[in-house]
Amino acid sequence: MSENLRNALKCVRFCLIIALALLCVRELHCSTTHPRPNILGVNETYQNPNTYLLALPVEGQIIDERFTNIRFAPYNAAALFDESILFCGDVTDEFKGKNGTLVITYLTQASGMYRGIGCHKLVSVFELKYSEEK
Questions:
Q1: What is the per-residue pLDDT across 52-71, written as a single tens digit (0 to 9) for each?
Q2: Inter-residue long-range contacts of 81-84, CB under 8 Å, 24+ positions, other chains counted
Q3: Considering the domain boundaries, does residue 43 fall inside one?
Q4: C-alpha to C-alpha distance for 106 and 131, rounded to whole angstroms
Q5: Residue 127's beta-bridge partner residues?
Q6: 3-class SS shares of the chain: helix, strand, coil, % to 5
Q7: For residue 60, is it within any domain?
Q8: What is the pTM (predicted TM-score) of this model?
């Protein structure tokens, strides 16, 4: 066999290998598992959508009459540590009449935006009641 014919066969063999590899990638690709339908036919959440915060509210402000920013001092954290949460809407009514340490529940995923910062939907605010020891 001549050198040119040998090189041509190598080129054809290489092209066939590439074509087979592309075909395998196209046909035998991996995929994630498909959603498993339940008997009720509704979507199921496999992750808790809520965030819970046990903290003392330090200060708050209403921004543009559409957002509420509240700074909290989380329970059992250093005095210098605080956490600010931006809530969608005016949520001051939820905090009225509640004193001391609170349990705040809000949606983890941001429900809106204010200047590039996500705001969260407030779900609930509970006041902790301490019982006196006997």
A1: 999 999 999 998 889 999 99
A2: 82/58, 83/53, 83/55
A3: no
A4: 26
A5: 102
A6: 20, 35, 45
A7: yes
A8: 0.62
